[in-house]
Every structure is written in C-alpha cells, then in structure tokens.
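Handout, page 2. Input:
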Amino acid sequence: MAWLNRATRTAPGRLRLAGALLAVVTVAFGTLTAWQVDGRARAAERVVSYSQPLSQAAADIHRSLADADTTAATGFLLAGAEPKAVRERYEQDLATASRLIAEAAARTTASSPAQGWLATLNQQVPVYAGLVETARANNRLGYPLGGAYLRYASDQMRTVLLPAAAQLSAAENQELADDYAAARSVPWAAYGLGVLALAVLVWVQVVLFRRTNRVFNVGLVAATAAVLSAVLWLTVAGTTADSALQRSEKRGAAPLRALNAARVDVLTARLAENLHLVARGSSTKYAELWSKTTEHLSGTDGPRDQPTGTLGEARSLAPAEAVDALVAAGEQFRHWRDQHAAATKLEVVDGDYQAALNATVAARPEDAAKTADASFGATDRKLAEAAGVELKQFQQAAEGVDGDLRTAAVAVAVLALVAAAAAVRGLGRRLAEYR
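Output:
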C-alpha cells in the first residue's frame, strides 16, 4: 500500500487515482448491466421462440390425442356408415400428435423432464392405434369383441397416454414460467452499480470544486450525463419489456392454459358420451365420467352469462377479443348438455337405444345437424376460435421484447464507455495544469 500512500500525497497523484476509479466503476457498470440485460433478452427470446411454443405444442398433443379417442368412438358407433370426414379427422389427430411429439423431442434438451413423457407418448401412440384398428375390424365383422377392444384402447388412452401428455404440459408450463420470471427479473446489481458510479462522479466533482473553486468540469459533467442516461435507458427499457411480457402472459399465455383445460374437458365429455353408447348399458362408469367432466366444465350453477368451472375460468381470463367466441361456446355446451339429457331419457326411460344413438350421432349430414355431436362440434370450433385469438394476442405482446432489451444492453455499454472516456479526459485536462 506504500505506492497508494505516495500517490495520494500529491494532487496529480490523487487525480490519477480518481480517474482510474471512475474508469473502473463506469466500465464495470456498463459490463454488468449489459450482461444482466442480455440475460433478460435471452429469456424473453426463449419465451417467444422456445418455451411458449413447446407449452402450446404439449397442449396440442394432449388435445389431439383426446380428440382422436373421441373421434374413434364416434366412428365406431357409426360402424359401416362412418363418414370419410370422421375417419380422416381421427387419422389427422394421430398424425398431428405424432408430428408434435417428434418436434418437441427434437427441441427439448436431454436433461429436461419432458423427455421421459415424450418417450412414453412416442411408444404408446402406435399401440393405441393398433388397438383401435383391431376394434374397427371386429366391428365391421359384427363381432361384439370390437366394443371391448375399443373400450380397452380408450382406457389405455385415459390411463397412460393422456396422463403422460398432462405431465408433459405441466413440465413445459413450468419451463415457460421460469423463462417469464428470468425475462422479468429486475437487474438490481446493475442499478446499484449505476448509483455508485453517479455517487463517485458527484463526489469527485464536489472535491474538485472545493479545491479549485471551479463549478464545472466538462468531462466529468459529460460522464455524469452519460451514466445518468444509461440508468434512465435501463429503466425505460426494463419497464417497457416488463409491461409487454406481463401483457403477453395476461392476454395470451395464461388464457391459453385455461382454455386448453376446457378444450380437453369438452373432448373427455364427448368421449364419455360415445363410450356409454358403445358399452350398451353394460357399465355406468362412462355416464359417471360424463357427469363428473361436465360438472368440471360448468362448475356450480349460476347466471347464464357468468359460467364457472374450466369453461368459466377460460372466459374470465380471456382478452376482450376472445370473449364472444367463449360466450358462444358456453351456449353451445348448454345446448349439447340438453341434447344429452334427452338422449339419456330415450335410452333409460323409454328403453329405445337406437333412438338415443340417433340423437347422439348420425352419418347423414341432414340428420347430423340435429345431434349432440353437432353441438359438441360447434362448442369445439368456438373454443378453437378463441384459442387462435389468444395466441395472436400473446405474439403481438411478446415479440420484439428481446430485441429492445438487446438494444438497451448495447446502448448502456456504449454510454458507460463514453462516461469512462469523458471522465478520464476531464481529469486529464486538470492534470495538464500541473505540468
């Protein structure tokens, strides 16, 4: 420390030390801020291009598998009269699920817990498809074993595939939440170092004023302005980014999660309705599944314009642009539930299975429009419409945030270098007076 004591004995030495201190503090401020803000930018980029698409893909896998199971049961009930559109929808659902599983596996890191669930899905989808084809073949031949195969395939879907898809969704949603938290984190260390840099600059200027009686040192004033500008830029960019990310979560990501839950419930209810007819009264578990799922969808009874349950939650979280579609979905769901009650009466009270089947599903378009299947389809389409609106809201709010943060990181780094150079130059001019 002897050199430090010698340096502080003279005014030039003290000025050199002050210049070195200011250069170190301002450069450190710029470096730390650029690093922290760039980290936020990378997290914001992951939200848009990685974690949210994977989260939505997981939800789409879940929905596609549930829809495939529902459509398979519909086709089974229609037997030889199964329309081509029903068969194509089933095949498209399985193709979509398989494609999304492969894409998610390729984009997910090896250490991610999602890999295990993706492996399970990849292995079990072909097994399920094989069981359904066996059920179809037996059904075409008129063998009662076809119904047993279909119920077993559906049980495999509900006990193996859909739980794995739900776990995959949970894992991807957690990763999305982690990326949101990282993207919205406040760079407190950068703010602290920025305040320290400003404090040191003010302190040096006060000391110089007391010793020289000169009010301003142009270099130090410029350095102070540069650091202050950097802190303000950091604050504005951070606040703007946080607001955009919060808006994308509130108007897009969160409503989509609620809506995905409602869509799966709708598909589960339709599956229960179909499988109850496939079972031909041999079991009450599908009727119980219908009741449980529709109660989960609608929640407690309340005003018709204020539904509860998963459907009500989806509506309460939805942005204004999606509310009309969700209101229409709620109306279609209530109509569907009324039609189901009428079909149940035909089967249970009147003992007319064929009439109950005709009220639930039909092959001819002119008959199908009056069935429960038509109301289910209308409900599902309105929910899909709302999902499209919410995804657009997310993209509009979140896209570009990472670019704004990277611009702020570069700007702060440049301003910090300008501050360091200005401070050194300002003190250098003062040093020149001693020569």
